[in-house]
Amino acid sequence: MKFLYLWPLVFLILVPVIIIMYMLKQRAKDHPFSSIFLWHELYANHEADTPWEKLKKNWLLFLQLLTLLFLILAICSPYLLSGGKQAENVIVIIDNSGSMNARYQGEKSRIDEAKDQAVSLVNALRSESTVTLITCAGDDPTLVVSNTKDHASVVKQIKDLKGSCSTGKVDRAVAMALTMQKQLTEGACETYLFTDQAVALGDVKGEVVNLTTALDNGYVDYISYAKGSDGGLTVMAKVTNAGPDTIISDINLYIDGKMIGVKEQVEIPSGGSKIAYFDGLYVQGSVLMAELNRKDDLMEDNCSYEVIKTGEEEAKVLLVTEQNVYLEKAMAQIPNVKVTKTNEIRKINEFENENYDLYIFDGMVPDGDLITLPKQGNILIFDGYYEPYFTGKRFTEGLRVSAEQNSVMKYIENANFGVGRGYIYEVPDFADSFLTTSEGSIGFIGLHDTQTIAAMGFDVHDSDLPLLVEFPILIHNLLNETIITGMVSSTKLDCGDSVRISSKLDGEDVVVRYPDATESLLLTGSAIFDSTYQVGVYHVSQKFTGGELSADFAVNFPNEESENVISDATAVDGDEDKQESNTVSAPLNLRNWILLFVLIALVIEWIVYVKRS
Amino acid sequence: MADNEIFNAEFYQKLNTLRMTMKMHLAAGMSGGRKSNAKGSSVEFSDFREYILGDDIRRIDWNAYGRFDKLFVKLFMEEKEGEFHLFIDGSKSMDFGEKSKAVCASRIAGALSYVVLQNLDRLYIHKLYGSSVTSDKGVTGRQAFARVIKSLEGIHYDSDTDLLGGISRSQLKRRGVSVVISDFYTTDLEPMLKYLAFHKQEIVLVQVLSREEIDPKFEGTVKLLDSETDGNVRITMSGGLIKEYRDSYEKFLKNIDALAKKYSTQYIRVASDESLDAIMFGALSKLGTG
Lengths: 613, 290
Fold this sequence. Notes:
The structure holds 2 protein chains of 2 kinds. By secondary structure, chain A is of the alpha/beta class.
């Protein structure tokens, strides 16, 4: 038997305290009696002479001491080692992917069971054992705690662990455990994997705690829509039964939380799917939701969401250039941008009718006389100037360019590059410089009436800028400042996926409202948002001077996880030598047994007390 | 009705019925309202027996001599006045118990006095205070009952116990009945019985004990203070000790029982928390039947 903690032995100091209290308690109380005639005979045998004699045959005292000792023992958390399971290093992997939210037994979910078992395991470890905790929701496993002997903090981390709705790459967590196992030079290492997925431990030494149970689960695979020419919607929802029995359920369709259609009593055989069509829907709204209206063992996948696109998200850009590979490549990285290229500057006013969001002039700029800049859409000029608005002075000598304080230079404030030749601008009143040289500004941006006008006075081919990492960021920032279009890179995701949220740099912080109405803030500019752990519709908004940008995107429960609910985690080839069970074979923790003894001792004490009085 | 009021209305109400239940036998005394077991010269015929030398020849039944040719003597029930002595232990130990032993003892004394006086016998009340005794003048006749009650009410239970010392100082000149009411926490019980027997007394022992003595209930370590002396015992109570006390108590009672048998004494035991009914129709009614 070993002890998890030894500090509770300090409480042994209470033993003499109890004995002393007993001695003090033994002070006799005066009790008048008619005659002590009959008591005299008993006197010799039972008179309490000395304090030590008082303790003789005092069962209550002994029972109390016994209770105290058992209690101290219980706090010490003794455990029995069994079969060499006490490795010096333990890696605990908890699969907290979506399928682990499924019911395990009673009201308990698989993740709850995994957490409880993991806590018991950690509590039963020797105090000198190191513990590593890995979770595996999302694409990459998360190393929550690494090689710590602070078991209490590990237990807290395990208890605080929340189930996610995302997919889980358990095999990657196992790979991580293997790497860690190889790195450990001292002592044996055991890995305990709590999962409901089929996974092979391979070379990893340890055991899989399989939490799969045969459950009932139906789910909505997807929801999709099409808009008719008359504005009517046709919606399609696919539902699948992953459970062992045929299910019969209504399929409800909602728009913005309002029910607009029902398919009643749809029968779905075990392992089969059904597609429900809802057509001729002339309704207003932006978020569709299909719901499988029945209670089963995993409720998170009973709804699927879809955001109805308004069709305005994609930005149209006209690139007027002879050839600029660098620029085209950089722009290709930016989502929601449709670039049209032309080299016919003379026809620019014809293109103007196409209502481009942004016109980029690369080395070719209207003269402002016969050909003018478009009146709608923003303007970005490379290697040139437009005299009606601003002028530039040609320099053919090499120039060093550095960044100025400006939102365009966000994240690249230290940019510094060389330019062979270029225009030094006289920055117009409406604009601010963002690139400067020893001769003056070589780049500015500003708002002229309703148009954002930006200019960079050099050809990127004549500079070393494309060779720097700052180049794509600068182009992104520039486009971000000059294109106003949809904020999100995708409107339909699975839990755990990430989405790019583009916002205006000079606006307020971006607010993301989660399905549960909580909110978080994102920095302006382009940001990757990956906290998509809730199923539902996320609303993104940003306020800026003169308006507000907003967008919705839907996050659904991954179908892969819905299927995992009934997958058999034991069906893994090549892992025959690994121990697998639905409970972890941890060392036997004796605490509860000792507490039982304490309880028994208290009952006996009570009986003795009652009997004596 | 206060429990500690010695002679209350209930007490007087019970007395009339008590007379019917008690029969006490006397062997000696003056002529009185009681049929004595001694056959004497009264008018009420009792029996015949053969004449033996020394008999009063005036009692020879000559008619019987004529018929049987043998001398027979007529025996008559002699009516005598009995002499009763009530010894009441006035020790402090009697003033104990939630239901006071003193009250109980006084009531028993009152009840016995009533019976004695109803039978036109002579009654002496002796209050034992330690080794001294306070004896009232002998009284007889029903009209003396009020005086007796007043005397009993005047007993102060505050001395120590010395039954032998007290009784030996009392005047026992004639054959009679001595009733001793006490808890008998004494080692001098046998000498006391011897003394009374020597003075030709029919002895009745009435032991009064409180519930606290019969079944003590206290816990932990206690210092028992003797109510009469400065003595004390310090004991730690336990189930075992209670059992030993009960054994000791039983032994104590058996010892009294044995002595009572040895001296042909009537011995009754009364718990102070028993109702007056229970005492009168239980313990007291047995007196005289033995």
